Automatic annotation (TrEMBL):
<keyword id="KW-0732">Signal</keyword>
<protein>
    <submittedName>
        <fullName>PAR1 protein</fullName>
    </submittedName>
</protein>
<feature type="signal peptide">
    <location>
        <begin position="1"/>
        <end position="26"/>
    </location>
</feature>
<dbReference type="InterPro" id="IPR009489">
    <property type="entry name" value="PAR1"/>
</dbReference>
<dbReference type="Pfam" id="PF06521">
    <property type="entry name" value="PAR1"/>
</dbReference>
Length: 196
């Protein structure tokens, strides 16, 4: 009888804790987050939060969190856990949202690891969409990373484009500069798209 009582008590306590946690977090607004929780967070409206750094005339650095125009897929009201940030090889001091990190083999290895890929859907969703924007299917990239990682990485074409930060930011959607792909044969840059 004591074990049934303790299971019911634990269930009630767990439920109460879940409600308290939701009440504590409430509706997430990017502009209310600090620099330690901003990067990789998703607002209650489903928009991704981005961290920005401003340098004052005095040289002091000031960090602000803003709402981006990038929507998360089926994820809302989420502050990414420190566990996932670490498991996926990310940094809380990341500014903006960019696919450039997919070009780094160490980052891709961590992103595709079981600890990240199987347990951190918010981060996987973000990089899945960033990879798709570059014409790369993330599951395929993760599949080839062990066998022929260099070829898989060369498929990603980095344009240097960083997604727009806050709504009031400078137009980040200006035409990106041409990019150079890396040749798999000798490591020399291949002709840019502008020359094609």
């Amino acid at each position: 009888m004591a074990s049934i009582f303790s299971l019911k008590t634990l269930a009630i306590l767990a439920l109460a804790f879940a409600f308290c946690l939701e009440a504590t977090l409430g509706e997430i607004t990017c502009e209310h987050l600090d620099e330690e929780t901003c990067a990789y967070a998703v607002s209650s409206t489903g928009k991704r939060c981005v961290l920005e750094k401003h340098v004052r005339r005095s040289g002091a650095e000031e960090y602000t969190c803003r709402t981006s125009e990038i929507e998360a897929d089926k994820i809302k009201n989420c502050i990414e856990t420190d566990h996932c940030v670490k498991a996926c090889g990310l940094d809380r001091k990341s500014f903006g949202i960019s696919s450039d990190s997919l070009l780094e083999s160490h980052f891709t290895e961590m992103l595709c690891s079981s600890a990240c890929y199987d347990n951190c859907p918010n981060i996987v969703d973000l990089y899945f969409n960033l990879a798709a924007g570059e014409g790369v299917f993330l599951p395929k990239l993760c599949e080839v990373r062990g066998r022929n990682a260099r070829r898989g990485m060369a498929e990603i074409k980095s344009s240097g484009f960083v997604a727009a930060g806050p709504i009031n930011s400078v137009n980040a959607f200006a035409a990106p500069a041409p990019f150079a792909a890396v040749s798999l044969s000798d490591g020399a840059p291949a002709p840019s798209e502008a020359e094609d």
